[in-house]
Amino acid sequence: MAEEVKILDIKPETTEVRNALEAFCEPGDLSEPITNIACKIRRELGRPLLILATDFIDSEFVDYFYKFRHALADTAKSNKSGAPDADILIHSPGGDLNSCYIIARLLGRWLKSWEALVPGYAASGATLVCLGSANIVMSQLAQLGPLDPHERFFAGERRSPLEAFRALNELRTMMLDSVDAIVEFLLERKVEPQQALKTASEMTLQLVQPIAAKIDPYDLGVFALDRLMAAEYCKRIAAPQDITKRTQRKVDPQVLVESYPAHDFVIDLEEAKSLNFAVSEATPALEDLFDQIRSLLEQAHLYVGFVQ
After folding, report:
1. In Å, what is the CA distance from 214 to each residue of 159, 169, 210, 252, 289?
2. Could you give the 3-state DSSP secondary structure of residue 138?
């Protein structure tokens, strides 16, 4: 259980720290330095700031996040400027997609619009959360990542749907290449085309059958459903029913779920632009603050805190 730190008890350097809500931090001794930099970021951007940082987004993390619902809702009600209601700083490699989806949906319910701040990485499920933003402000080192639900097991080893389907595609490519090569070999030796194709098919089947026998059709079905679930989650977050919500509507969910060769593929600022994300590069002043808070968040297992 993360240590709950009352920021009000800290001797603050600024009035913003005095106005910060209680934070959840593990280890607790990182709470004060992280909160001090959070207040500087909030002062730089001029909007309330929520920090969501964790090694893994799960249902327990959702509980920490949910404690700030009233603060976020009040922030949205008081915002008359037309600008985003708040900034959400996200630092996580991802986690359980269901939990990430819940966070993104709740942010969309509580806020009219918000900007995502990514000083380090917001990969996989954390990228799903970012799809609900009006804009993503990325540092030069920031990374998003392909979505890939990987809580399943394949052939006794942990695999993701992306890896499974890539393996299946490679197997199919190998089969077709084998057939072509054998047919060409036999035709050069004056074998009749029909007989050459039959022989090539039989030889290829003998080659791939031991490999295919290790693939459980049930697992493939589960992987397909997981992939579909990830794509549907993306669609609902990036393009909610309320068309007034400023979100990442131009991003193609299928690309995020299916098009990358590996789950840990780095989506940097330029790559994000090519995918039609609404993104911008951090200003020099914000980049410096990102450098400071990134080094601290990488040491923390958990930090959830809100600066009004």
Report:
1. 14, 15, 7, 33, 51
2. strand
Q: Which of 128, 152, 89 is nearest to 256 (CA)?
A: 128
Beta-strand runs (E) in 81-195: 86-91, 114-118, 121-122, 135-138, 143-144, 152-154, 157-159
Distance between CA atoms of residues 293 and 38, nearest Å: 8
Contact 257, 230 (CB under 8 A): yes
- pLDDT averaged over the chain? 86
Coil, helix or strand at residue 3:
strand
pLDDT tens track for 276-303? 999 999 999 999 999 999 999 999 999 9
Cis-peptide, bond into residue 27, ω within 30° of zero: yes
Most confident of 3-12, 71-80, 226-235: 71-80
Are 291 and 85 contacting, i.e. CB atoms less than 8 angstroms apart?
no
Whole-structure pTM value: 0.79
